[in-house]
Amino acid sequence: MNTSLAWIKEYVPDLDVEAQEYMDAMTLSGSKGEGFVKLDADLENIVIGQIEKIEPHPDATKLVICQVNVGKDEPVQIVTGAPNAVEGMKVPVVLDGGRVAGGHDGKKTPGGVKIKKGKLRGVESFGMMCSIEELGSTKDFYPEAPEDGLYVFEDDAVVGESAIKALGLDDAVVEYEITSNRVDCFSVIGIAREAAATFNKEFKPPVIKETGNNEDVNDYIKVTVKDTELCKRYCARVVKNIKIEPSPKWMQRRLAAHGIRPINNLVDITNYVMEEYGQPMHAYDLETIAGKEIVVKRAENGETFVTLDGQERAMDENVLMICDGEKAVGIAGIMGGENSMITDNADTMLFEAACFDGTNIRLSSKRVGLRTDASSKFEKGLDPNTAELAINRACQLIEELGAGEVVGGMVDVYPVKREGNRVKFDANYVNGLLGTDIDEATMLGYFKKIDLGYDEATKEIIVPSWRQDLLRPADIAEEVARFYGYDNIPTTLPTGEATTGKLPFNKRIESVARDIAEFCGFSQGMCYSFESPKVFDKLLLPAEAKERQAVVISNPLGEDFSIMRTVSLNGMLTSLATNYNRRNKNVRLYELGNIYLPKELPLTDLPEERMQFTLGFYGDGDFFTMKGVVEEFFEKVGLHNKTQYDPNAGKTFLHPGRQANIIYNNTIVGYLGEVHPEVCDIYGIGEKAYVAVLDMPEIVPLATFDRKYEGVAKFPAVTRDISMTVPKEILAGQIEEVIAQRGGKILESYSLFDIYEGAQIKEGYKSVAYSIVFRAKDRTLEEADITAAMKKILNGLEGMGIELRQ
Amino acid sequence: MKEKLRAIREEAMKQIEASDALEKLNEVRVSFLGKKGELTSVLKSMKDVAPEDRPMVGQLVNETREAIENLLDETKTKLEKAAREAQLKREVIDVTLPAKKNNVGHRHPNTIAQEEVERIFIGMGYEVMEGPEVEYDLYNFEKLNIPANHPAKDEQDTFYINKEIVLRTQTSPVQARVMEQGKLPIRMIAPGRVFRADEVDATHSPSFHQIEGLVIDKNVTFADLKGTLEVFVKELFGEETKIKFRPHHFPFTEPSAEVDVSCFKCGGKGCRFCKGEGWIEILGCGMVHPHVLEMCGIDPEEYSGFAFGVGLERIALLKYEIDDMRLLYENDARFLRQF
User: What's the gap in Å between the CA of A531 and the closest CA on chain B?
Assistant: First the structure.
């Protein structure tokens, strides 16, 4: 929403502020200013001058030498090349040292162009006469300006006075961010009312006088509203003997400041009142209205209609139409029809000011694919009472401008009159909610400024119908707050019952995950939750893979962001590939983010959101580096039991011989592995890459920060090394399981210290060596203890086809 | 005998003084005091000394031995010290050579900002809560006073799964969920991921993060909201930060406000960073709308409260002067390394 500051000042005559001060104060009272443009920002020292004498230039055929009266004792000499200069003409003149906004080609120069006295082809010139383009505007907004050449004032212009003022350029256009609850502020009147209240000045809206001749409008037109839900009010008036001509300059200037091109008196009046009251109106050529009647009803499904822009559009039963006795003549609140538009030959017009249902207009405008100035006003939900004000204001302007003869009376279909709300007022409640100590009289003073009435008997605020946002005492409190000043409200801290600040357990575990990952050299990345369904192919997942059952977004930004991820790896691999492409070496990343698993499709319940701790790297390190990170994390969150690794994880996107499910307490809590070389190729990662994915909802319930000190060993340990020849297919994990199970209470630890395949080892076997440590808590071990334990272990190993090497 | 001892003593002294290394000194020790050393052999020959002379000779031998030992020790200490000094001199390094780092990883700037905000509010007695990212329309909109066909639904460019389920456009639904549980009073913050159908560019992302705050108790006032946010902003951006409340409109708060903080680059004078305004918009807030309280089963006559919502990326971008939001989701190691 933009308004001209001069227009606001017209209704708040005592308002004497500059644009910046105005905007700052309006922002603090709730009409947020987004900025302002001073129309004369680049104009300086420009007056109305009259060309008194024109002589040819001795050395240039295209230039002439003018003596220009600028209201001083002596005329100033100006050399010009303007084709339309004639003696007696009144034109804008920028004097020596002044500035204009740009060239006559319409190109603006930031900061303006300084005009200094100088010589043109040897003849002195003390200023410049200007075209409208040089003054920063265009012929679109100043239709009286010539096609090419100097702007020409009318004869009554006063020589020596400011040309900027005469052209209405001594104005600033302020842009506001109006919130959706303040429909009334999408109008000059609404903003002016706020401005008057903000600056504590009197608000003087236009006085609407009675209009119309002795005739009765009902003799001209009949209106029937079939759908009163969608059309809350329909006001119609008739104007005959219309005389289409340009509107007066003052009206053109106002419209120009609002960025609206002047067209002719009737169109301009409609636009002027729309800006002023926020109420769109429409004019029909009454000659074209069959049966001299208007019927407001829903369109038929499949009906087509040609709007006044010449486009044929398809309607459906949810679109409200304005029809005559035979046909549709307009899409309600959106655009009129080609068949009923005012043409130069029109004589009598039907003027419509209605109130349509905002939601319906918004949805219809979407369906029809046409959003207009009118529809964008209606969709906010207008006050039906404004329709009457606006149509009468327009008729008043028609009479004042001599644009036609207004027929007496108004057809008004208004089945349910909108009354203003009544809201309970209690100063104590307001102070209690705000934490202030404002007296009741002050509050009542604020209400008066914005036309809120007060019923002392019932202690109720009488809300005017244009303030549809004031429904409850809390709304009233906001009115008090914004005029008291948000900045004047004290600052305190909540009192009351003390509460404990805390982080939920799962977030504490996530925090440890971050610490460990970073300690191990991994940096945190963030990936999108939505991705392309092509991801599943990139990860080589088979057609029947359950991961392909994903939640689909019905209105995605594109296919690449259309499904909610069911696997976290794509983000990680994409990020690694980005880094690889950019030649970053040794990149280690981790991510903590959800995957979204539907319980069933199509979705009826919310999907299950599972936090995934995903790690990935390329560069230094291997499978076991990643395994180390996993185990460091497990230890830190209290998963002290032995973690197992099952190589039969069945992940298509991992190297078939270098992957494992991570198993803790017999539950799969994640997986890790080397990325399948084909997948690396697909993503464009040119090195071996390793990933691990930990399913946090499985880990969090197992995690604990409880620890018990077990004492430091007092008695000596005994170490036994064993070297074995092991069938190739037996995993280290299986050997360790035997050692762990059979080592007994005195087994303290074991560690692999050598593994070898090659020349000295027979085919199909590998050499494996472990160091096993025994210790008792309460005594020094004797040889017999150790022998017995070792014997049990060795028996177990032999059972697996393992031979002890000597 | 006496002469012999004096000769030994003198020879020993001479040799000790001539020793310039510990090994040599040890040789001297062995050659005089060792099992086959000269002084030892004198002792061995004591049996040849007349018994009446033995005490005297014994004393003499002891004196000689003591003198030699003393000098040996003294010289040893000296030589050791010299050797240590020589070692230290040898071991001088160029301390400006590169460090050997563990290459610790780095936290994402969003997370750093989030943890900072969490720290501040946990300190004020707030509990950190979570809610689903794929959310019912009911919680994302309706319970927040945004009924069907409300224009705010369009404004927020919602991603829909179906009519009832959306990707949450704000963290505010967590408010409704926590209020519904009915445990009062409430002091909570809810950080999390939210989604809006904005095309990716330098200032927009279809996925970003917010932190919601909610306090419900008896007698909570707008002044309390102001005070709380002032503490928060000063903790986050520095004690000298100023804060400004402007009236605004949100469907689920009344009165509502937007909050600006004084630009922490220029201190409010106006610079390129704050687009010359001296202020930077940082969050939206307000008193929880009585209808929202009612819908969540809380009596607005008895309880009141405030709520606020902060954009996490906005804080991260401002705090770390990151000029392009896309950097946050590219995961370039050279970017992440800077935090």
Answer: 12
Does residue A396 lie within any of the structural domains? yes
Concatenated DSSP letters of B59-93: HHHHHHHHHHHHHHHHHHHHHHHHHHHHHHHHT--
Backbone phi, psi, residue A65, to 5°: -110, 120
Question: Which residue range is the domain that position A324 belongs to?
Answer: 217-413
Tens digit of pLDDT for each residue in A64-99?
Answer: 999 999 999 999 999 999 999 999 999 999 999 999
Same domain for A278 and A364, yes or no, is: yes
Q: Which of B293, B337, B306 is nearest to B230 (CA)?
A: B306
* Residues B185/B187/B193/B195 CA torsion (nearest 10 deg): 60
Is B154 a residue whose pLDDT tops 80? Answer: no
In a domain, B100, yes or no: no
Residues B192 and B62 in one domain: no
* Boundary residue ending a domain (B90, B118, B138): B90
List of chain B residues whose C-beta atoms are within 8 Å of the C-beta of residue A362: 149, 151, 154
Does the pLDDT value for residue B283 go beyond 80? Answer: yes
Q: Tens of pLDDT along A610-643?
A: 999 999 999 999 999 999 999 999 999 999 998 9
User: Number of structural domains, chain A?
Assistant: 6
CA atoms within 13 A on the CB side of A527: 30
CA–CA gap between residue A335 and residue A573 (Å, rounded)? 52
Query: Nearest 5 degrees, angle CA A607-CA A609-CA A611?
Result: 165
Q: Residue B252: which of B313, B296, B302 has the closest Cα?
A: B296
- Residue B196 in contact with partner chain A when CB distance is under 8 A: no
- Dihedral sign (CA A430, A434, A437, A439): negative
**Owning domain of residue B283:** 109-336
Q: Is residue A762 part of a domain?
A: yes
**B303 vs B293: CA distance, rounded Å:** 8
Which of A454, A488, A522 marks a domain boundary?
A488
Cross-chain residue pair A578–B330, CB shorter than 8 Å: yes
Which CATH number characterizes residue A727's domain? 3.30.70.380
On the question of pLDDT at A806 being above 80, the answer is: no
- Chains A–B, number of C-beta pairs less than 8 Å apart: 247
Could you tell me if residue B102 is inside a domain?
no
DSSP-based three-state secondary structure for A406: strand
Rounded to whole angstroms, the Cα distance separating A157 from A152 reads: 10
CATH number at residue A627: 3.30.930.10
Model confidence pLDDT, tens digit, residues A109-158 = 888 999 999 999 999 999 999 999 999 999 999 999 998 899 999 999 99
**Contact of A743 with A772, CB cutoff 8 Å:** yes
- Distances in Å between the Cα of A385 and the Cα atoms of A168, A391, A510, B167 are 32, 11, 58, 39
Query: Which of B36, B58, B90 is the last residue before a domain boundary?
Result: B90
B101 touches chain A (CB under 8 A): no
Question: Which chain A positions have a beta carbon within 8 Å of B247's beta carbon?
Answer: 28-30, 478, 481-482, 486
Helix (H) and strand (E) counts in chain A = 20, 39
Positive or negative torsion for Cα B57, B58, B61, B66: negative
Claim: this prediction has a pTM higher than 0.80: yes
A210 CB-near residues (< 8 Å, 6+ apart): A392
The helix or strand, by DSSP H or E, that contains position A769, with its residue range, turns out to be strand A765-774
B112 reaches A (C-beta below 8 A): no
Mean pLDDT of A208-214: 95
Run of H or E including B16: helix B2-18
Do residues B66 and B215 share a domain?
no
Select the residue from B226, B232, B275, B289 to test the A interface by mutation, using most A Cβ atoms within 10 A. B226
Choose among A248, A319, A322: nearest CA to A284.
A322
Tell me the β-bridge partners of B291. Answer: none
